[in-house]
Design brief:
Shape: rod-shaped
Mean pLDDT: 82
Strand content: under 5%
Largest sheet: none
Distance between the termini: 60 Å
Order of helices and strands: HHHHHHHHH
Radius of gyration: 25 Å
Structural class: mainly alpha
Low-confidence stretches: 74-83
Oligomer: single chain
């Protein structure tokens, strides 16, 4: 490993420690790929061979970042609110899909409801005639009509 590479690895590690930076943050800051950053801090012949104490500090920060990400994961990746629509609201959505011939995916986006949840609510709706009508629309969309 060249002296330049060793210096860059230490620079990356110190940046992580000082800023509690994620891999993406470091990648953007140093204009390096995420895979390069990961190699610098994870490969056995890289950071750990240069300075084991710094390696341990980086690993501790990474662990904290991961735990924080897991804790916030639901908040960061979920859609707004939760799906608690009444049967009346489902009926409105069904009528919108039928009258405007929109796809399930379009309705999912329009009403901010996960596609699978919306589908389940629709096919389990009490009015079996409406469910049959909407199933025809869904089938036609699948066939590209």
């Amino acid at each position: 490993m060249t002296v330049e590479v060793r210096k860059k690895i230490l620079e990356v590690a110190k940046y992580i420690i000082e800023n509690k930076a994620t891999i993406e943050d470091v990648s953007n800051h140093f204009n390096l790929s995420k895979s390069t950053i990961k190699k610098y801090i994870n490969d056995k012949d890289k950071l750990i061979s240069i300075n084991e104490d710094i390696y341990n500090m980086v690993k501790e920060i990474q662990k904290d970042i991961i735990h924080e990400g897991v804790r916030l994961g639901g908040k960061l990746s979920s859609r707004k609110g939760t799906f608690k629509n009444s049967d009346y609201e489902i009926l409105e959505i069904i009528e919108d899909i039928i009258s405007n011939s929109i796809t399930l995916e379009e309705a999912s986006i329009k009403y901010d409801i996960p596609t699978s949840t919306l589908y389940e609510r629709i096919i389990n709706y009490d009015d079996k005639q409406l469910v049959s009508d909407i199933q025809i629309i869904f089938d036609n969309h699948k066939k590209g009509k």
